[in-house]
């Protein structure tokens, strides 16, 4: 009897020790999962603590959490306590990975969990269980990339529209982009979407609601098979369950789901070689072409504008305009380039032009020859050529170009002129030299002697003044910084001009030139550069808003151009715009 009592007492004592022991452990929902599944990780403790630190979750993306739950219960007078920190993880790749130690401080001591290993396999099929929330989410959420055309020509516009389809009995409470597509080998431009609108539509013959998330216009820059990278989203999905509230309404549960639009491939056809004009520069679409002048009758030294303009639908930013050829007696300046282009789902629309300033030097009539512009017409799938009319410039008043008349006379005599001999043709040769002997001279006591003696003494005050000025300039750190920035701006703008045609080098040099110009004019360091500060400082200097907008647009172009295809025409446009904008700011700054 006594032995039995001892055993019972020993067991009670052991149970008290076991209950009093503090536990802190890691629990995972599964030790093996597919790369397309989610892993739940719970960090449980039987006593509350402070300073909880989770592991870094390498090789996983945290798609939910931390969620905290606390449980208190009393059974036969014994209190049971449990606190849990929960995380929802998405594996980044396949392999064997470890959930490292978490730490927490309880009663002044630090406790650590054990390392847990999980295996991530290839994607697995979801179970066709209508009660499984993951299966329900998979069946009711779809991200689709709709491509307008899968076999376009080189430089033909296509559109990619990303739509998120959601079934009527499912909801989406939150979403974020995981992978944003990079359109390599395409010229691309996103079309702004003002507010997301929920629309009704169908997906695989069933009624769905959908939202247009992104619209992008693409112009392929290479032929052959090109891949469009997928857009991937992490979505919080509200899925209905079989449970109901006290009023009979169905309860919802939230599931984190990754959806992807998938890779899309297009086959880009090359433009046909048959019938391709020699002067074809890559224009694809439907265009009108014209050459106009501001006046046709004028005086010498007056100026006129000759404008070459292309307008229509197509890859307006991706080809070069033909050049203007005029007689040598007309002085022509570098053209001013203008664009009025908008981009919609149909592609680029608008016009591009180059305006040449022409100044005649002599009286006469000067023809501007006709100019041709060739493009590939997508409707007829053939090349077309547009030709302007010849324009004659009549200069009715001014000096006469004698060289032209002499040349005309010479040409009328079959290119030969009579040579007339003169008896004075060798008159420039001296036949009587009249040589004179040179007398010896002495250097002492001459003007040169006294000048050489006194000039060093007079140079001493001048050297003192120059040295003083140099010391003042050396002490003027701020002024030296401005002069150096101005010099660097000119240097980099020159480098940018030399690098035209080399996208990376050109935009690096152009961006440095713009930055150094700001340092000189606004007195700020490179570390202080921010878009807001630049705009505020230029506004304080009373710079026109349009000039500020052009300057900020140049900085933005320098950032974006490194990741998008750029033609030499666009580089030349940016260079000309930079030189013009700097000149305007110099005039307006106060």
UniProtKB/TrEMBL annotation:
Pfam families assigned: BatD
Keywords annotated in UniProt: Membrane, Signal, Transmembrane, Transmembrane helix
TM region positions: 448-466
Signal peptide (UniProt feature, chain positions): 1-20
Keyword Transmembrane helix appears in the UniProt entry: yes
Source organism superkingdom: Bacteria
Keyword Nucleotide-binding: no
Protein name: BatD family protein
Originating species: Gilvirhabdus luticola
